[in-house]
Amino acid sequence: MDPRINRWAKTLVRYCLSIQPGEILRMDGTPAAEELIAEVYRETLRAGGHPIAHVRLPQLSEIALKEGSDDQLGWINPADRVLIEAMDARLHIMSETNTRQLSGVDPKRQAIAGKAGRELFAARGAKVDPNDDRWCLTLFPTEAFAQDAEMSLSDFSEFVYEACFLNSADPAERWRELGRQQQFYCDWLKDKQEAHVIGPDTDIRVRFGGRIFRNSDGKRNFPSGEFFTSPLEDSAEGHIRFTVPSVVNGHLVSDIRLTFERGRVVEMSAAQGDAFLKEMLASDDGASRLGEFAVGNNFGIQHGIRNILFDEKIGGTIHMALGNSYRECGGKNTSQLHWDMVCDLREAAGGGEVWVDGALLLKDGKLVLKP
């Protein structure tokens, strides 16, 4: 086994989730991630915890979405309710072998199933302080993800290891170091009022009004490397172009252009996936408002791979998410949607700037303000 798999599992259990003796860890993944699931299981036992592995067959979701009734799609397994209440931490390992498996499913049916899942975790969220809720999302390299990235599996695997700092002898220390750097920006942004983003086909302002910026240092997203907040719901004014394509629920969407007035999207288009974009933004009242504003800060990720876990962290970019906002940041927008869209401000993409209360924060993909 590649020793980086062992390093990965140890970092997830010890650094990301901080499993203590007697604690319950729920893991979700597909058989494709067997190596990592097994090592996380082993490392959890070594930490004194109780691992529970949910290894799912991807085709079951497709069957349910195509053949289940609305009632069946909205049904919540009672066993899941019990486990959600009992678990101390959860780990989701993205490991799809076909990222387009649900592309033929009606998005409205996906929304019904998604709502049930959100209700399940909302029940936990009502009882657990969001700052204390331990969860982590990571991605195990598969042929499907490699194909989306237009890379061989071996090259894609190396890309993932590098983005996660797994080539370092002590990945956790690398993440702590990045976390310390990002905390400087979170502290500087405290009490700031407005960001102005300027770039190719982009001129937009969003206001924060004292909202909290969070430091994403690899504990919840692995890899990570961003600092983010939820802007005031009625504040977005202007237009923006998101040039990094993404795959959402099996649909490839690229070159998204949005215009905002008083916080709501009033014009929208996509070079590919335009109909899907419009349907998603009409899915509920909160879907056309911003739930997140963030700066990508992982310079180990240099290009998009059509997977938002990585793409939104590209160093020198910003991203905004339409839909549900973050309660821990002070966000109030609610939606079944949370769609992260990446705006590349690096020099190679035409450059751009982010100004905050009149001070230059980022220019042409580089953070001007230094710790």
Short description:
This protein has 371 residues and is of the alpha+beta class. The chain has eleven helices and 19 strands.
Supply the key terms:
371 residues, Thermophilic metalloprotease-like, 2 domains, 9-stranded antiparallel β-sheet, 5-stranded parallel β-sheet, 11 helices, 32% helix, globular
Helix and strand topology:
Layout: H1 3-16, E1 24-29, H2 34-46, E2 50-55, H3 58-67, H4 70-73, H5 78-86, E3 89-94, H6 107-125, E4 134-139, H7 143-148, H8 153-163, H9 171-189, E5 194-199, E6 202-207, E7 214-216, E8 221-222, E9 226-229, E10 237-242, E11 246-248, E12 251-261, E13 264-272, H10 274-281, E14 290-296, H11 308-311, E15 317-323, E16 338-344, E17 353-356, E18 359-363, E19 366-367
Parallel strand pairs: 1-2, 1-3, 3-4, 4-8
Antiparallel strand pairs: 5-6, 5-17, 6-10, 7-9, 9-14, 10-12, 11-12, 12-13, 14-15, 15-16, 17-18, 18-19
Helix pairs in contact: 1-2
